[in-house]
Amino acid sequence: MSRRVPAPALPVDRDVAALVVKVGNYPLHHGGVDAIRSLGRLGVPVYAVAEDGWTPAALSRYCRGRYVWPAEERADPKRMVERLQEAGREIPGPAVLIPTDEEAAVLIAENSAALAEWFLLPRVPSHLPARLASKRGLYELCLEHDVPAPASSFPQTAADVAAFAATGAFPVVAKNLEAWVRLRAPVVSGTTVIATAAELLAMARAWGDKPSVILQEYIPTEHAEDWIVHLYRGAGGDPLVLFTGVKVRSWPPQAGMTACAYTVSNPQLAALAGRLCERVGYCGIADLDFRYDRRDGRYKLVDFNPRVGAQFRLFENAAGVDVVRAMHLDLTGRQVSLTPPSTDRRIIIENVDLTARLSARLSRRRSGYRVPVPSGPVRTELAWLAADDPLPAAAMLARSAGPLATYLRRARRTRALRRETETVSPPSAEPAALLPEVMTVREKS
Q1: What pLDDT score does 411 carry?
Q2: What pLDDT, on a 0 to 100 scale, did the predictor assign at position 187?
Q3: Is the pLDDT confidence value at 429 over 50?
Q4: Of 89, 104, 92, 115, which Cα lies nearest the Cα of 44?
Q5: Contacts of 315 (CB under 8 A, 6+ apart)
Q6: b/e per residue, 319-338, with b = 16+ CB within 10 A?
Q7: With contact defined as beta carbons under 8 Å apart, do 305 and 286 qualify?
Q8: Model pTM?
């Protein structure tokens, strides 16, 4: 269990509360818990939107109040704005809004004018978070600003999927295309690696005539490193804090949430992320995922999440400032310390790391590469366990059985589907080039 570390002496305004906002229905979310703790330990009043009163976030000792709204209301943007306005009237003074999923970030940005009376908000163009959270929008921005990204296809119809199956390279990664749409009509349950054309066609039978999906180039694990960038950029220009780290384990493997990651200084990646934010005009908190492709030596942007990353507590600078604290300091007019990032930290997500560790050991036997983690002593940050705030971890353990059973059911269905497709050849198709929507990232000069 993590021992309680004395809170740093930061000049926070304890009269300005924070509201942690999540739209999606997934109670076991450690990022929200850690955001509550990060500010709560400094004496900032923190409130949270929660699925119910027994979510881990709602049970944190640092959660001053919770807003339990029905899932159907949280999935309705108009009703959600009304709910946030109601919360704004109840919370004393203006509060800082902290989005912890893409839907919340898009909702807040697109309705900033309606929320500004009660909340302090970054000065981000209202349309930009939606475009960054969109897989198509992000890919177009990467092409426009010469940022490497995996080659991607955006099938518009079932016929487009069949055309890709006939001509595309496999394995391929499938993801839901847009925020909000993934809540109403998800094509896949999460990032999904599809091994063969036959498997793609079998899965696509359930996608309908107009699949909201991206088919993205798969970078083989034996040639890849997964890097993360967390930053907060104020309206004044350069990021006030920017951190880089490397993911060493995830669950499910190669396509899931972070299970263990380390801080690793990477000036090249930091410059790439900062330059992209400057060029597109992004302000606020961001969590970027890059995959380093050893075959061509490029960092390829996989996701740009315009919100707090779940593993943000991996990072802080020498003054104890993480991205959540930087946001609160900046939006309340306080100075953000620009001390160097700490480089001796790691984070472990306890509820998924054991399984991920076993999987990673098997994977490393097939790879001749070693992920560049720090060689010296490191300080470990646990996502759930905390001596000064034990209830969230207890609630996580009590509620973990259901999600685990759901994952095992999905895994069994996937294995059955693969066994089925192993004996089925894909239907013939006219030879054709890739879909018109397929775009290849330009070579970097």
Answers
A1: 60
A2: 87
A3: no
A4: 92
A5: 230, 241, 243, 245, 263, 322, 323, 341, 342, 345
A6: bbbbbbbbbbbbbbebebbe
A7: yes
A8: 0.87
